[in-house]
Amino acid sequence: MRTRRVAWGAMIFTVAIDGPAAAGKGTISRAVADRFGFRHLDTGLLYRAVGVKGGDPATAARTLLPEDLTGTDLRTLAAGQAASQVAVIPEVRAALTEFQRRFARAEGGAVLDGRDIGTVICPEAEVKIYVTASPEVRAHRRWLEVGGEEAQVLHEVKDRDARDMGRADAPLRPAPDAVLLDTSTMTITEAVGRACALVEAALSARKRAGGHG
User: Fold this and answer.
1) Domain that holds residue 48
2) What is the pLDDT of residues 13-26, one digit of tens each?
3) pTM for the complete prediction?
4) Domain CATH code at residue 22
5) Alpha helices in the chain (DSSP H)
């Protein structure tokens, strides 16, 4: 795909990309941000960083620093499980919500990927995409990354899905107006192309309407 980076200046434009683990939302989000010159935030890293820091999760969330998001240990399966565990704590979610909202609605455009961006963090997002895939496909992708026993990875993926979808505070689910993007049988090029087309259409519609954010 041809890359086109655009300086959007004072425009406020948010792309919310949600979905379960290993569906491809991180890869898609980074590609969309690069394509349009938007800033990108992997919100899952916030929760992973809190989980990895240890101690009292609420305190860890309130004192989180930008450098805490750069650790090489944040991409491990253990960090992902820790993130899912601390994400159910209301005090942790409250401490991280405002940061995400400021990032989302700052000038220049932003892409955020997570589990509740379109439903809770930024329900006013101009584009909402829910990226998913079957548990088996997602487990295989994760297994290729982390190794181990594939059956155990599948069990952990399903366990995390149940935890994320069943929590009382901001459960994982598509926003009512989100576009569903099932990547089970898609190549990454196809998935990125579909997401970029949705953003391009929204930007074009705003331009025709004379909107500037």
Assistant:
1) 14-199
2) 999 999 998 999 99
3) 0.82
4) 3.40.50.300
5) 25-36, 44-53, 57-62, 77-86, 90-104, 135-146, 150-166, 188-209
